[in-house]
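Worked example

This section walks through a single chain of length 258. The input is the sequence exactly as stored; nothing has been trimmed or padded.
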Amino acid sequence: MKVGIKTYSDEKGYNHIPKIIDYADFIEILPLPDNDFYKQFADFDMEIRIHAPHQGQGADPADRNAVKRTMQCMKTAIGAADLFDSPTIVVHPGTYTGVGSTMRAIEFLKQFNDGRFLIENLPAECNEKGELGSTAEDMAPFVKTLGCGICLDFGHATLTEHAKAKGYKQIINEFMRLNPKYFHIMGGSIKENIDHKNLFYGDFDIGFFKECIPRDAYVVLETPHDAGMQKREIEFIKKGKYSKTAVFGFRKCRGIFE
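Given that input, the structure is written out below as tokens.
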């Protein structure tokens, strides 16, 4: 199992890497077409994987009004993957904008014919907008038509419980039937409807997440850039061990060590 961290390709992310480089197996960066700062990450002697820009950066394969921006972002991601020899490019399928959204996103992505694409599941609702690929059923057309794999984001799948008549563990188990080998993991709270917290925050069943991950997987921490905490998060994912004294004061860690 390889465990890495995700960061944006900016100066803050760049400056964080030396703090965790001896612990993380790789990093996942999100390059932008607006500047080429991401190329400076070649300074680090470690594996670099690519995450394509998404709705937060104005890219959306399903939005016909965002074609130009999405094309720029996808070309940048593909170029960055070529530069860093990344065998994977994580891609958000986009936003539901009405009937035909899924096929519109698929047709847009199909033109690149890139076998490195991993389609990431999105939460069923995000910023009051429906998202594509929130369940295994929604994801299946992408996998079948594009011939690609998926990136299973545990946080997105967990928060999808709010919009579906099923529990998040069932949602995740259904995604596991698509044989994911690449994962995003973080802590969060169903009650608070938040994710991207440190791994031991809130009420997400991190032990269940860990049990789902196969031994040959790539796992990306999408947690705050706290080097000390990320070192301990990596230790937990890899070895199933975590010092109780190291989390003294984190009152929401119930059940992790049982």
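What to look for: Residues 67-84 form the longest helix (18 residues).
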